[in-house]
């Protein structure tokens, strides 16, 4: 514990930087992936193209992507923008399939009932489809959160200040404690993010807690009540 106590300020600094570099790609990739998931469900051809394209994005090796992005974006090699863009690309690649599956999980009778009530495609999406797809979307977002937090560390290779620095520097100095501190801190961040997402999900989707008891969501109840009236 000697190294940890002597370098506690550095560990805190790198941890906060790691969190900051993780939050932006997670949020942005979600905002991009949901509309793409909606587009993917318009027809089979669009779905095949969208899902295939996202799968191809995820096959790009992380280190070459971090290295080549400055030439594509015209940014400095050490700019954090490169890391944020790369992590967003990977986040979108993972989240698009989850978004498409989530929105396709909304059964067709519910969609038809909402349309019969006079909902436009846009209002139906916001008030019916999105709430019902919420649990599956949340599950996908949790996966994106974990993968993003893990990938942030790779950015240290190109000079990004995050917990990955502890892995590199610890390996160069043959300091096992330094490496373990980086691993533990990364795991704690992943657990914290996952806990926050679960709590946000419970707040925004209180009906999901009763889904095991086969209780319909408020959105579905609203559709059925209005159709029956």
Q: What does it look like?
A:
The chain is mainly α and 229 residues long. It is built from ten helices and no strands. Mean pLDDT is 86; it is low at 212-229.
Question: Main traits of this protein?
Answer:
mainly alpha; 10 helices; disordered C terminus
Total helical elements: 10
Q: In percent terms, what proportion of residues is strand?
A: under 5%
Dominant shape? elongated
The residue fraction in helices comes out at over 70%
Order of helices and strands: HHHHHHHHHH
Question: Kindly state the mean pLDDT as a whole number?
Answer: 86
Q: How would you concisely characterize the structure shown here?
A:
With 229 residues, this protein is mainly alpha-helical.
Question: How do the helices and strands line up, and which of them pair or pack?
Answer:
Layout: H1 2-6, H2 8-40, H3 44-58, H4 62-73, H5 80-104, H6 108-116, H7 121-152, H8 164-173, H9 176-204, H10 218-228
Helix pairs in contact: 2-3, 2-5, 2-7, 2-9, 3-5, 4-5, 5-7, 6-7, 6-10, 7-9, 8-9
